[in-house]
Amino acid sequence: MDEELDSDDGNPNSVLAQEYSELVAILRCQLDSVVMQLIQTVPAGSVWLNRQTPGGSAAPSDHIEAMLQYFSRANTAECSNFLQTVCLLCEGIPMHLESKLMSVAGYSCSDALNNLSTGTSCLENEDAASSVTDQQPLTPPAEEQLTKRPRIDYWEQYKAEVAGSLQRRWKRLSEGLLKDVQPDKIWVSIRTANRVRDRPDQTPSSAERGGRTPEPDGDDGWPESRLTLESFLQGCTGKVTVLAGKPGSGKTLVMSFIGQQWTKGLGPIPSSHLFVLLEFRQLNLLSDPLSLSELLFHHYLPTNGDNEAKQAVVDYLISNPEQSCWVLDGYDEFQKKLKRHRVQNERLDPEKPLPVSELISGLLSRRLLAGSTVLVTSRVRDVVDLDGWSDKVGELLLWDQREIKEGVSNFFSAKDGDLAADAAEILFSSRHLLAMSSLPALCNICCVFLQHLLHRHAGKIKMPGEKGVEVKKKRLDIEKKDAQTPDGMSDSESCSQKAQHGENSEETLMDGAKSRSTFTFTSAQIPATQTQIYLAAVAAFLSRHPDRTGGNDAAETSGFSESTKFAWKTVILPAAELCELSQLAWRGLEESRIIFLDEDVPLQTLESSIKSGLFSQVEVRGRDGGVVNAYCFLHLTVQEFLAALRIMTSTDVSDADLKKRFSLKTRWTTKSDQKTVFTDSLYLYVCGLASSDCTPALEVVAKATGIKAAQSWVQKRQALVLKLLKALCRSATLTGPKILQLCHCVQESQNQQLAQQVVSVRPTLELRNFCLLPSDIEALAFVVSSVGTKGVGLDFGACSMELECLDTLSRCQYIHYLSFRSRKYGDKFAEKLSSVLPRFTALRKLEFCGASLSSEGAVSLASGLQNCSSVTELNFSDNNLQDEGIRRIADVLAKLQNLTSVKLGRNNTSLEAADCLVKHVSSCSNIQQVHADGIKELTLTFSQKSESNSRKIKPEASVRLLNQKWTKSGMQNLAKSLSRCPSLSELDLSGGEWDEETLKMLIQFVPSFSITERIILNDSCSSVQSLVILTTLLSDCPSVMEMNIRLQDPVQVSVEFSAGREKPANVSSKTLCLSRCNLQPIDLERVWKSLGASSDLSDLDLSCNKLGDKGLKKLLDFLPRLSKIQQINFSGNDVGVDGVVLLAGALCSSNRLTHVYISDGGKDQVMLQFSSDTSNGKLKTKLFRINRRSLTASDVNKVCRKLVQCGTSLELELTHCSFAEKSIENLLRELPKMSTLQRLNVSNSILSTFDALTLISCFPDNHQVSSVELSPQGESFIRFAGIKAEQVNCRLTDFSFKEENLVLLDRLNQILQQTRQFSYLDLSGNQLEDEGVRCLLESLPNIRVSSFINLSKNRLSQQGALHVATTLCTCTNVSAVEVSLGEDERCLIWFTQKGGGEKTLSVKDSKLQCDHLLRLANIVSECQSLTKVELKNNMLQSEWIENFVTALNVNLRGCTISVEERWIGGDDAAFLLRRCLRLHKPVQTIRIDDKTLQLVLMDNMESDVAFSAQSAIKNISVSNSSVEGDKLLCSLLPSLPNLTSLSVGIKDSTVAEELLHVILSSTSIQSLNLSGVLISDAAAQTLTRLLPRLRSFKSSHCVWSAAGRLLLIETLKKSAALEELCLDAAMQLNEDCSRGLAQTLRNMRSLQILKLDEIVKSSGQPEADVVLDLLAGMEELNLIQEIQLGGWRMGDGGIQKLTGILPGWKDLRTISLSKNLVSDPSGEKLLEALSGCRHLEELHLSRNHIGDLTAARMALVLPSMSLLSVLDISENRVGNEGLFSLSRAIMSLKNLRKIHLTSVGSSELSAVAASLSHCPFIEDVGFGWNNCEDAVALELANVLPVCHHLTRIDLECNSVSAGGVEALVRALRCCPALQVIRLWKNKVSWSEAQRFSQMERRLNFSST
Fold first, then answer.
1. What strands, in cross-sheet order, belong to the sheet with 324-329?
2. Beta-strand pair 1794-1796/1766-1768
């Protein structure tokens, strides 16, 4: 209401005079028509108009002041009427002024209206009167005039009713309030209101760490600034203001207090406003849409007036929305989210019923009652929903310790004042109680718990598990003590009021401390977790029931055992009530309800809960406006705790429900988060109840719920919670807030193992951009303390925290990394941190960067750091330390002996800071590096003690001061500091753009520096004069070894020093690089002068300057003074032709100049290389290379004429050059004159076929040419021999002889025919095609070739292939032809020197047709000396094969015809055999094996009479036939009268029996080979009859019965005529069989071939005995030629026995002793015994233990075995020495075809590879699995050109790199016979392998 008026204010004239200025302002804002109506109220004839401005008509507004002055002196009636008229007609009058005017004027509305209705005017001035009457009628409608006053009265009446309601509300709330609410002492932190945005996770990525910390806009939007609530609410009228705070912080109480202040005309809300206070918790009950009127009169406060009054109030509210204040309390408890509309300016209809959320959002968005004042309270979490609507946002700050003390004191001062000090002491000793008490509501709960605790412990008692303490007995009457929380208050109200107490709380505590007796509690006697405090507090509240006594409720209460930590024995736990309350809390949680009606709560529980204080009663209005009783828990957390208790004690909550509710909540909220009215603490209490300390309490409550076996059920539920918590601990994806919440959960669970898992997953806990409370730090401390000595890191980024948090943090002893990043951390924070730093005994790394640290804070940190001896890393970058702060930090570094690095960059420093750190290098012995980069970086690096102790010489420091603006004086100071440094490895002063004087100052001091490695001066000097100054160091400073200068951008300067030792008189050679320095020829004189009289330069780089030919001449003139020069780089200096000629002359005239490289005409590269020593007279081959240049005929003449003068061996390279006309001819004329020329390289220079033919035309004239290789796509060179070359190697490949170049083929033929002799001729890839090849073959008889002609890749067709085949007939010296038209396109013609002899033909992959095959038969028939025809994969049909053989000449004797096709095998094999037998050809042998048909014609025919195959056939071998084929074979055998040898592989035993019977009846068969046959007993009986007449019997992989084996052995005793016997492990010999075999061997003196591999393995008796018996049986086998005893494991004893037998085997040709455990000494004896076997051809000794002794013996024995062709010693242990010995032996093995040295235990096979050049017939080389490197590959590449028969090389599983493979690829061009090189598992990447495979298909990088 309005303030009371004094006596003077009762007079209308006085009021008008008081409010004169405000009325003038109001009237000037009105319409002219309104002002004119007021003017008309002036009585006629008044003199006020005489004072108006003369001169015509005036505007109505010009008369306002005169009018007001008139009425201020008029009589009371006139003045009252005037004031009433003003109130009725004018708009925008403030409420307080309008009320004041109406009150003083009285009610004379009727008179005023009558005066206005007369319409007459008494104005004396006619002009004025006419101006008024000319206007339209100005009188407002009568209805409007008559209703304004009643509307104002209704408005004032409703305001009075609201004031009364608010006063009653405050009276109810303040009944238990012991201290007035003081807005000037309540603190609020403020922030700028955010527009709509989500909350980001500002945890920086790894890439952002170390940089400047970005400044967030506060912790979750809250900055550090704060102000009082009174100041915060100033100016809130007409705006939307949000006041946030934690639940229980007093928001509701503050809003009620503001309403009470409004009723008194005080506070921030003007009394003229309507004050509407709405609670969201009650708005939740409004489900139906309602209008603004219904919201006011049905929900907020019904009015006593009728509908007319309601409508008048609403109309006034709508017309004057700025005169209303809407307080919306507890938005966090609203169950709906407020919606935002796309059309923001769309107004809402206040008369239209809308959902309550629409009405609220309309108020906030100004779409409803725009201009009204809105105050909203909410939790911080939900403020994000109001972003974009709020004009100002603030947060109620938590209580500090002083306020907590006041609260505790005022709580106990009423009745238990003597306990106040004890309670405060207990509270401040418990970190959980103290953290809870920072909220007024929770402080009240803690006080109730402490009150109960102190009452229970009054008197002499002994605490369980603790020593007794004396306590003065106090008689406390708990039964008479009322609950502290009055009925009708909300949770926040009832809690917050406890925060407002008297001002003498500290004195009260002190007085209590003096009067009380000693009262001590240990930490073990206080609940250990927040959950346990809630459990004890709820029990304490329930014990305050007035009807409850301490020990009379045994049926409903139960105590805990004395074994638990907290003294639970003193706590009475009413299980039944807890069960009912927890059920209610859980139901509310499920339904998102916090208000309960009478019907929701059992009556007894409701009464006891209200009386005990656990429930608060609230008023709720229904739809009709009536009051409904409702109730809520004391605090939301109490409801959540009780719900958690229900989860842990009731089967109503399933495991699935628990898992659904169990999730961590983040403090960073977004608009997308689901709305909830609760505090998200449920999971925290669930974790706390999972602690074993709570198990007894849970058992009690669980029993009350009716659970049987409560203990096991509770423990199972606790285990489930711990399991869920363990999964969260293992998650590595949690953000900082969730990590912190996880720490709280783990702390509540009191589980050390879970704490250890948290830090094991995340060794560093990163927390970003939210406020941290001491309780948060306490949770972190619990987790961190569990890690032990392993250590953990804490990284705080922009997290606000009070200084007391650091005290809590200091209890974490095992923190090894601590980081603070934010401008929030300043000097005060650093001062506090310095006091606790020494407590972090395990601290290794400290970061205080991106903060607000000044030199003052640096002093504090330095004082704390000097006691932190374990610190290794410090980071103080991005602060404001300045030079003084850097000095303070640097002074303490010497005391920190374990430091490794200190970062001090971006601290607003100058050069003095860097100089200060350099000075410390001499005083601080462990400084390793000083690094500065402008103002951005300043870092110190230190060496570890272990590093310095491990070296004899102290580690040398380095100084890097980059981008500094040096002056001459500044450089002088720095140089003096550097000269005092004991030893520096590197000095880097790059950047800064010095002048020459500054550079001279530095160079002057350099000789006094102790620098061991280098000085770097990049971007510091850029003139030639600076270059000259620098080069003087090479002569003035002996320790300077190298200098690199580049003056072009980027400027680079480096000076390299020797290793820091004293130099002898003859210092080492030096290097000078002056590349890209813009040097002119004249500048060289200055450089030579700076170098002194004698230069020790070994390397000189003058590249990329502007020296040209003149500069080159000056250089060449200076060469004699460069006595130690090794290399000169003159590239990029525009050297012309004259310069090239100068270089050619210098190469010939200078003895030391050996190599000259010129590229791109001298513009790109010019390099000169020199030999180091020529004193021994051995001059190296000189090389003159010109690359990428266009050569004219004149250029060639000039250069070659200079090079003719060269007296030493010379190589000339003209690569990637283009030859002008006549250039090649001139070159060829000069070549014979260059007598010392050894090699001419023209790679990538001969691109045309014409030029290639021109170049090879030198063959006939130049007899020194030894080899030529020309290709437009690869290497091209001509080699020259010192003497006349006997043969020429010629490769002319990849040119084109088709179309217009076909005419050049005749010239090629002419050149080839004139050449004396070719070793080989390679014409592959020349696009010859059929016609070109035909022309070439016509000249073939006149071309002399000793090895081969390669015509591959020439696009031949089948006709072309046949042309090549005819050479077998037309050329007598052609020995073989190979043609393949497949992907490899091979075409080779091999030659023999002798002429005549055997010839072979191979045609593969050529898709021959029938006519091609017949033509081929004619060619073959014409070649009488043809011995072998191979047709492979030519897609031939069986009929074509038959026709081919039929067409062959009968005189083709002894020829082997081999046909391989995929279809040969199975039934086709048998049918093919029958076709062959029907041929009328003298076929002697037919073999069908592995898709191959082989026919051998007879070679001893007496006449030309045609024989049938059936009569001529002698040998048949079929190994892969089907059963039907085998039967067919049985039917064919009787028709073969001359068959002597049969080899079959039969799988069917019945067919085998039948076959043996057929063989038995055929008397001609003398040789039988059975492979994989199942030998039945009947078949064995048949064999007993057959064996005695056989000369050869082979049994491999056959299956025998025991009786069959014994029968076979007995039969063999009678088979004395056998010459060949083959048995294998499939025989499975037993003891009798072994003994019988030994006796059999004694009788077989005709044996020539004996194969018994692996046969000993199957014997039952001891192997040694079997071996000796069998070897004894071989003593008389003097005719033996081949013996295979592999796998016998005979060992030294068996070898000794064998060596005694070997001398008698004079005709031995093959011996295999693999896998026989042959030792090195035994191997030596074996080789000695074999020395007499002069006919030996194959020696197999793989998989034994032979070594260097055996290899050395081989070197002596093998040369005598001239026929040896196969040597296999794989998988032995031969060392380097043994392999070297073996290599000497191999040189003498001219017939060696196969050598296998796989896995011999050494990688040094280079000598063996080199020795293969002496083996011209070598075909197969195996060097796999030896870890061989490129050296072996290079040796093989060298021997490949001379090994023309080599077909296979195995290099798999070695260490050959891409370089070695490259060499093999180059060598393969000269070895066309080579089929494959295996390179699996070498040091070649997959991409390189792909590249090599595309280059050369014969390289195999796969495992198969």
1. 226-228, 187-191, 392-396, 240-244, 373-378, 324-329, 274-279
2. parallel
Looking at residue 1708, what DSSP letter applies?
-
**Dist. CA 283–CA 1729, nearest whole Å:** 113
Pairwise pLDDT comparison (930 vs 337), residue with the higher score: 930
* Contact of 484 with 411, CB cutoff 8 Å: yes
Say which residue the tokens 């890393």 belong to. Answer: 873
**pLDDT single digits (tens) 484-503:** 333 333 343 333 333 333 33
Q: Find, among 15, 125, 8, the residue nearest to 68 by Cα.
A: 15
In contact, 1462 and 1516? CB cutoff 8 Å: no
Confidence band, pLDDT 50/70/90 cuts, at residue 121: very low
d(CA 407, CA 443): 8
1062 pLDDT exceeds 50? no
Does the structure show a pLDDT above 60 at 624? yes
Sorted by sequence, the CB contacts under 8 Å of residue 869 that are 6+ apart come out as 895, 896, 897, 898
CA contacts within 13 A on the Cβ side of 1648 = 6
Nearest to 1527 by CA among 1492, 1506, 1557: 1557
Under 8 Å between Cβ of 1517 and 1543? yes
Cα separation, 1767 vs 1774, whole angstroms: 14
**Amino acid identity, residue 789?**
T
- pLDDT at res. 111: 41
pTM: 0.56
φ/ψ of residue 1410, rounded to 5: -60, -40
Q: Are 190 and 226 in contact (CB under 8 A)?
A: yes
Strands 1210-1215 and 1182-1187: parallel
Contact 245, 132 (CB under 8 A): no
Concatenated DSSP letters of 466-513: S--B--------GGGPPPSS-TT--HHHHHHGGG---S-HHHHHHHHH
Q: What are phi and psi of 1124, to 5 degrees?
A: -110, 15
Please give the mean pLDDT across all residues of the chain. 82
Residue 1802 near residue 1771 (C-beta atoms within 8 A): no
| 1277-1280/1237-1241 β-pairing | antiparallel
| Distance, first Cα to last Cα, the chain | 104
The answer on pLDDT for 549 being more than 60 is no
CA distances 1647 to 1621, 1682, 1697, 1699, Å, are: 7, 9, 19, 19
Q: What contacts 203, CB < 8 A, 6 or more positions away?
A: 735, 736, 766, 768, 769, 797
Taking only the tens place, the pLDDT of each residue in 1377-1410 is 999 998 888 999 999 877 667 889 999 999 999 8
Are 244 and 197 within 8 A, CB to CB? no
Span 303-316, pLDDT tens digits: 877 888 888 888 88
Whole-angstrom Cα distance, residue 988 to residue 974? 12
Report the alpha-carbon distance of residue 99 to residue 153 in Å, rounded.
Answer: 9
* 1246 vs 1224: CA distance, rounded Å: 10
For residues 1328 and 1351, the answer to whether their CB atoms sit within 8 Å is yes
Half-sphere exposure of 77 (CA within 13 A, CB side): 4
Distance CA 669, CA 106 (A): 58
Residue count (the chain): 1904
939, 910 Cβ separation under 8 angstroms: no
The phi and psi torsions of 1172 (rounded to 5 degrees) equal: -80, -30
- The torsion angle over the Cα atoms of residues 1291, 1292, 1294 and 1296, rounded to 10 degrees, is -160
Residue 1343's closest CA among 1295, 1392, 1388, 1310?
1310
Q: Distance (Å, rounded) from C-alpha 942 to C-alpha 1600?
A: 81
Q: What is the pLDDT of residue 1718?
A: 94
